[in-house]
Amino acid sequence: MLTRRLIALTAVLTLAAPLAGWAYYQQEKDKPSESPEQPSAAQMAEMMAKAAKFTQPSDHHKVLERFIGKWTHESRMFMGGQATPPEKGSAESKWMMDGRWMQSQTKGTMMGMPMQGFLVMGYDNFKMSYVGTFISSIDTAMLRFEGDLDPSGNVLILYGTLDEYLTGEHDKMVKYVWRFEGDDKIIFEIRDLPIGEKNTKVMEIVSTRVK
After folding, report:
1. Which CATH architecture group holds 59-209?
2. Each residue's pLDDT tens digit, 173-194
């Protein structure tokens, strides 16, 4: 007799649990929804001001105007301070996204191999730094870098990390430097920082504007 009562009680509890859950769900569903508090006019004005400040091109973007145009260049690699013979190439830089980003497409050779490259650079108003990324036809890695303009206003210095498949190194610190020598010449350097304090330059590209 006791066994039958236990079975019956178990059955009742088993059925009651989902029924109670369903009743609670219906009760909660029928409650009027509470709409979130709407921002005040002052808060809306503050948000709009932030949007204008952080999403529109700024004076910092004007620095990148120096890249715009067509260029010829000579590139050299450096190994132990010794330069390889120069290799020729060309580049064209344009604005994109209504002046928020500068894109530069390059063609040339590297160590005798044909190469195409694509650079995108801009200024992150919220982060307050120049940011960029680079991809090429001779690699599957995407390089990223970030930095600022030096006090002279003529040297753009960015830092990033590089995975070196030849040595197995990951996240190796690299320094990227663009030196603006007047309006028609840019010297670009890549420096391998883990090498030490001397002979860190591993690549140099001298670009001359096409007129």
Report:
1. Beta Barrel (2.40)
2. 999 999 999 999 999 999 999 9
